Structure formats: structure tokens, C-alpha cells
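C-alpha cells incoming
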């Protein structure tokens, strides 16, 4: 089976000569279709940096990111944004919805203008029903709760049927009960759609059982293959 994601010897150094921060240090791993993966680690360990590299939002200093076996290293900036829009879905800590638009319009934002809008709208309505927002479809997003906004963000992250959904602290701005509901929603959508999720979180406990947990420490990635041993991912 081919990997939806393969990262190879990924490093990221921020800053200039005198002020260098090695945020990622030679990280390599692969992720298979349908896996639900958590990225954990203390503040400043490099989790968001890693997610930004996988999300093609920033380029690594060294190493490669393959998505659906395509090497993204040499894609031009304009090719990268088209590729990103097609292959990746994003869910952020703050839902990043446009408050002047309705729930439905927000879900449709990542859809290419050139695409089939009728088909996309049908798909968006189905996703909104699946995330439990059938009665909110035409509301403006400044009139919904934080938990509902994050449900909209989940639907928006899925609208283009991405290869991978990336989420950075998707429950970071929610109370614990609402967080659990969003976790359940992401896990159930992952199962239903055989959708790969890579989720950065401070709170791995609320996620319960997941397929994999990758720990970042000082820019290096570790994964426990058996519960008692932590193996360095190379
Ligand atoms: N744009 C940047 N310029 C310079 N240094 C940066 C930049 N972004 C992150 N860093 C540094 O890189 C390291 C890793 O940061 P990163 O944001 O990836 O950590 P994190 O694990 O996501 O932390 P948190 O849990 O607090 O969100 C930190 O030392 C941080 O200060
Ligand atoms: Mg972060």
C-alpha cells in the first residue's frame, strides 16, 4: 500500500546565523490512508512547524514531503497552492470562518471557482448534516457557538475530499465537553470516510485510542511501537 504522506529527513531552521533555531531535526516517517495520527509534545517542541511543512504552508530547510507519492519539493509556489487546496484540508484552533458568510458559504470556500458548484453544494449540505448542523446551514457564522463553528471547520476541511486533514489544536479554544464532541466527530468522520487525519494536540487523553501517536521533542520525532518503549523515528 502506498503512503498518503511520506516525510524524509525533514529539518527546519528558523532565523539567521547568530539567531538560529533548529525547530525540526531530521524527521522521517510515513502515514497510510485512513490513519488517525496524533502529534504531541511540549510547547515549542516543533509540532506546528512540522504541521506547516506537511501542510505546504512553509518550506523545509532540508528534506522532502511526499503527498500521494508526489514529491512537493520542486513545485513552484503557484503549483503548491493549487496542490495544497486539492490534497489537504485544514482545521485550526480558531475556526477561521468568515463571519459575514453563512455556514454553507464557509464550507464552500475551499472549492475551486472552476469546479462544479452544484455538486459541491450538494456535498457541503451532506457534510453539514453529517456534522450535525442541518438546522444551521443558512445562518451567518457570527451567530453560532464556538463548538458549532468548529463543526463548520471540520466540514470545510473535508469538502475537497482531501488526502489528509491537518488540524493544529482543533480543540484548543473549546471547553472540555465541547472538545470531546469535536474529537468524536473527527474520529467518526475519519472512520466513515476512511479519511487520514493528522492532529496536533496538547491533550492526547481526550482522543482515546488512535492509530498512532508521534511525539516531538526538541524537533525530533519519536513513536512508541510498544507501550513501554519509545523509538526514535529516523
Ligand atoms: N516563524 C518563526 N521564526 C522563528 N522561530 C520560530 C518560528 N516559528 C517557530 N519558531 C521556533 O521554533 C520552535 C518550534 O516552534 P513550534 O511553533 O513548532 O512549536 P509547537 O510545538 O507548535 O509549540 P506550541 O505547543 O506552543 O504551539 C520554537 O523554539 C519556536 O520559538
Ligand atoms: Mg504550535
Amino acid at each position: 500500500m502506498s503512503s498518503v504522506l511520506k516525510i524524509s529527513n525533514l529539518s527546519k531552521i528558523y532565523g539567521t546565523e547568530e539567531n538560529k533555531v533548529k525547530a525540526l531535526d531530521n524527521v522521517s516517517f510515513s502515514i497510510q490512508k485512513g490513519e488517525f495520527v496524533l502529534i504531541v509534545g511540549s510547547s515549542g517542541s516543533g509540532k506546528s512547524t512540522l504541521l506547516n511543512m506537511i501542510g505546504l504552508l512553509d518550506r523545509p530547510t532540508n528534506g522532502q514531503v511526499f503527498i500521494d507519492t508526489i514529491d512537493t519539493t520542486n513545485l513552484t509556489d503557484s503549483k503548491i497552492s493549487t496542490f495544497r487546496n486539492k490534497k489537504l484540508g485544514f482545521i485550526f484552533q480558531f475556526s477561521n470562518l468568515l463571519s459575514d458568510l453563512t455556514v454553507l458559504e464557509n464550507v464552500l470556500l475551499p472549492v475551486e471557482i472552476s469546479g462544479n458548484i452544484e455538486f459541491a453544494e450538494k456535498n457541503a449540505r451532506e457534510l453539514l448534516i453529517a456534522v450535525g448542523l442541518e438546522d444551521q446551514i443558512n445562518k451567518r457564522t457570527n451567530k453560532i457557538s464556538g463548538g458549532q463553528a468548529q463543526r463548520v471547520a471540520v466540514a470545510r476541511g473535508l469538502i475537497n475530499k482531501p488526502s489528509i486533514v491537518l488540524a493544529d489544536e482543533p480543540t484548543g479554544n473549546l471547553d472540555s465537553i465541547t472538545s470531546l464532541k469535536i474529537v468524536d466527530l473527527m474520529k467518526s468522520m475519519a472512520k466513515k470516510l476512511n479519511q487520514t487525519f493528522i492532529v496536533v494536540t496538547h491533550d492526547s487523553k481526550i482522543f482515546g485510542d488512535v492509530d498512532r501517536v508521534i511525539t516531538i521533542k526538541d524537533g525530533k520525532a519519536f513513536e512508541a511501537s510498544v507501550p513501554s518503549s519509545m523509538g526514535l523515528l529516523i
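note: The pocket of magnesium ion (ligand 2) is lined by residues 47-48 (CB under 6 Å).
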